[in-house]
């Protein structure tokens, strides 16, 4: 019978936490589209993958930034703190109020405040709409 030591307990806790984190990531990815395959990719490969996918060049810039004026709801949903409802609210705002002139204007969308903006500001851009 194995000896129960603090080291063994710590190792078991680490294994359990790792498995839980992987399962949580899979569940979060799966909620985005039930019919889409789940791809787990390192962040460094995300811009290259977006460029190769069916997203238009205006939705994802070469730097990996998401354009608030052209991105789809599914793409906006990938931003930190943005779910399906807020993604649709961003689209409704740009279509019914006005296109975004700066990234800070996303705070004018109902339910997007300074904290949400700070969490997503490094991931977004705006294109000039003609």
Record the SSE blueprint.
Layout: H1 6-30, H2 46-52, E1 66-67, H3 73-76, H4 84-96, H5 114-120, E2 124-125
Parallel strand pairs: 1-2
Give a verbal description of the structure:
By secondary structure, this protein is mainly alpha-helical. It has 2 domains: 1-40, no CATH class; 42-130, Orthogonal Bundle (DNA polymerase, domain 1), CATH 1.10.150. Helices cover 43% and strands 3% of the residues. It has helices spanning 6-30, 46-52, 73-76, 84-96, 114-120, and strands at 66-67, 124-125. It has a two-stranded parallel ribbon with strand order 1-2. The chain starts with 5 loop residues before the first helix and ends in a 5-residue tail after the last strand. Residues 54-62 have low confidence and may be disordered.
Short description:
The protein has helices at residues 6-30, 46-52, 73-76, 84-96, 114-120, and strands spanning 66-67, 124-125.
Average pLDDT? 78
What is the number of helices? 5
Per CATH, what is the topology of the largest domain?
DNA polymerase, domain 1
Work out the radius of gyration: 19 Å
Work out the strand percent. under 5%
Structural class: mainly alpha
Instruction: Outline the low-pLDDT stretches.
Output: 54-62
Tell me the quaternary state.
single chain
Whole-number tally of structural domains: 2
């Amino acid at each position: 019978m194995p000896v129960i030591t603090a080291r063994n307990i710590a190792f078991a806790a680490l294994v359990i936490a790792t498995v839980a984190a992987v399962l949580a990531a899979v569940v979060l990815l799966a909620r985005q589209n039930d019919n889409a395959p789940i791809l787990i990719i390192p962040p460094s490969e995300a811009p290259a993958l977006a460029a190769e996918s069916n997203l238009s060049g205006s939705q994802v810039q070469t730097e990996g930034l998401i354009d608030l004026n052209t991105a789809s709801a599914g793409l906006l949903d990938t931003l930190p703190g943005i779910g399906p409802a807020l993604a649709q609210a961003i689209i409704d705002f740009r279509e019914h109020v006005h296109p975004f002139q700066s990234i800070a204007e996303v705070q004018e969308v109902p339910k997007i405040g300074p904290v949400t903006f700070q969490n997503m500001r490094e991931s977004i851009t705006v294109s000039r709409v003609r």
